[in-house]
Write a structure and sequence with these properties.
heterodimer; A: 200 residues; mainly alpha; two-stranded antiparallel sheet; elongated; B: 305 residues; alpha+beta; 11 helices; 38% helix
Chain lengths: 200, 305
Amino acid sequence: MNPEPTQPQPAAPEPPRPTAERRPVPVWLFVLFFILLYWAMFYFDQRSAWGNQYVYAPYHSYAQLETFQAGAGGGNALGKQFFDNVCALCHNTDGSGKPGQAPPFIGSEWAEGPPARMIRIPLAGLTGPITVHGQEYNLTSMPAMGAAMTDEQLAAVLTYIRQSFGNKASEITPEQVKAVRAQVGSRTQPWTVPELQSVQ
Amino acid sequence: MKYGPLIFLAALLAMAGSWMGLVLVPQLQVGELVQTNTVPENATYPLARPGLASEGLQVYRANGCASCHTEQLGQTSTTCEVVLAAVGTNQSALLSALLKVKPELGEATAKTMLTELPQTVLVATNREDADAVAKDLGVGGAKARIRIVPQGPDLARGWGKRRTVAEDFLFDYPVMLGEVRIGPDLADVGTRRPDPNWHLRHLYAPQIEVKGSVMPPYRFLFETRRIDQAPSPDALSLPPQLAAKPGYEIVPRPAAKALVAYLASLRVDASLFVAPYSVATPAATNQPAASTNSAASASTNSPPK
């Protein structure tokens, strides 16, 4: 590029040519990459409520979605929805039951009893007499209303029963339902009261 | 092929990864979707589209409507409003409660507010604050209602009241979500434009209904025919420069009727558990319904940008 002739320079010792070295990618970079990937997965999943089918953007969690339900603030809207559609046909929307047939849930020793016992009832149904508040109820056979529900739905509706109508029992989680469902297996034979009473 | 197995493994991982993300996970999430219920009315939702409307979906598909129109509404947030619906018996207690919530109102303004119910007391708040305010206002039999108001640019344009969710498309095959908005979104066009004759005229000559529209006319969905004895009740009423010559009339073909039936069936007006919003009833809002309608038509009439 330079048109002028260059002046001859005294020969200087040539510096060693730079060469590319073969070096392995540093290990910490791999570690950082996987940590980032791990964090990204959590970030993504949390934003989409761990893939919960009920939670769409802009909601981040199931609990947040529930706070925006039109009815009374907070509460278990999914459970109420399933209760009103399924359980309330016999047990009434206020959980008072039908005399002589479907037992009430209000303060019931079954509704507030051990979760494992309660979860079993909708999974396979119940046959024969059952005593609640010292009164006998006998609807010949309760069908397996909960067998077709997902773990989440069944947990929500059972939690609704346990925490509504003045009941103050513990929450039932989808994990508990899943565990009991695995124990029950493919049983379709309805439970009887003595069978359930052996479950704690 | 020195790296044959490696390339195979990489290709397999890439395929398996995208299959998991694009097919398996969505299938697990919404693959077993079934009809649900509206909240709190508890009506079954969605109902299958009527026969003519589901034929219209195929017309919509065949004519490429989805290349310019979407059927999906977004939502960026959800807010709550507190609406005072009834005064109750203890008006002075309510007045002091109202002034506690909104101290910037003078006592005189608050008093006139109480005479014009229903009255929106608080807007753009979260659920906790709304609950607290509604509880504070509920003195002496006064009733304060909470409205759930979804927010977002699509909704601000008047294209709908809430975001669309998978349930809205349960009975559609294929789902015509669309991806480009050369025209307005149509997810809720059935509530926005209930008049079938408007749609027919708009299909025949879009510009007579929407000034500056870039939509092409779909005149092949109509036929010009001689009036036999009496004019058909379906005949379009068009401005003179477009009307058929005397003795003839322009009537929609079955495809046009099906398409309009489909458009009328596009409604996103149910409040669902997954997408809650408060259905505006005349008692729940202090805005007349006409004002929301005109806002909607103003935004849809403006030419696409």
